[in-house]
Amino acid sequence: MSNGLRRYSISGSRRLSNFLWAFLLFFGSNGFLFTGFASYLQKIENIQFFPQGLVMIFYGFLGFFLSIYLGLTIFWGLGSGFNEFNGTGGAPYVRIFRWGFPGKNRRMNLYFPWEDILGIRVEYQQGLSRRGSIIFLQIRGKKEVPLTNIGEPLSFEKIEKQASALAKFLQVSLSFAE
Predict the structure, then answer these.
(1) CA atoms within 13 A on the CB side of 171
(2) CB 81 within 8 A of CB 99
(3) Among residues 92, 101, 107, 106, which one has the least CA distance to residue 170?
(4) Which of these CATH numbers, 3.30.70, 2.30.29, 2.60.40, 3.90.1530, describes 81-176?
(5) Which of 26, 113, 102 is nearest to 64 (CA)?
(6) What is the DSSP letter of 21?
(7) For 1-24, what is the mean pLDDT?
(8) Which residue from 76, 40, 43 is spatially nearest to 57, judged by alpha carbons?
(9) Radius of gyration over alpha carbons of the chain, in Å?
(10) By its UniProt entry, which InterPro entries does this protein fall under (predicted)?
(11) Residues 38-69: pLDDT tens digits?
(12) What is the pLDDT of residue 128?
């Protein structure tokens, strides 16, 4: 058994891309709302209220509420947390912690005994809009648990290096899948 403690932080929804999308959606939707209401008040002559102004108000409200939702997910830190691998002490364990939506089940806190860890699996995903790798923790009698941010663009070499170091630390097998 390896001695030591390893802890990997997970950013979750607090990524730069989410901040940028929330910012763009908020100000873009306000522009649509302003233009739609200005056409209703006949402040803009070249846009009629029905149907163009009404559609702009609809999309403005849609974008505004979407930006509020995205802002709240950033504020709440959805999906953020850590993966802790503790080989010290009497009973070594793996702990996976994530933040969820506010409420009774906001904290997802999973503990697995060291002996139940079967292996580490790296899945390489390819597609038109998405390309990346995910590290999974294989657990005896349970489903696989993802350890990396889904959708976080990390190079295959970086994921492979992290997965091999983790498998060596846990003293388990490492497998790759496409």
Answers:
(1) 10
(2) yes
(3) 92
(4) 2.30.29
(5) 26
(6) H
(7) 87
(8) 40
(9) 23
(10) PSI_Ycf4_assembly
(11) 999 999 888 898 999 999 999 999 999 999 99
(12) 59
Binning the chain into helix, strand and coil, the percentages to the nearest 5 are: 40, 30, 30
Q: What does the alpha-carbon distance between residue 60 and residue 32 come to, in Å, rounded to a whole number?
A: 5
Q: Are 132 and 178 in contact (CB under 8 A)?
A: no
| Residue spans per domain, the chain | 16-76, 81-176
Tokens encoding 22: 């929330």
pLDDT more than 70, % of the chain: 93
Residues 6+ apart with CB under 8 A from 131: 125, 153
Q: Are 172 and 150 in contact (CB under 8 A)?
A: no
- 127, 178 contact by CB (below 8 A): no
Looking at every residue in the chain, the average pLDDT score rounds to 89
Look at strands 107-113 and 145-146 and give their pairing: unpaired
31 and 7 in contact (C-beta within 8 Å)? no
Residue with tokens 């390893």: 6
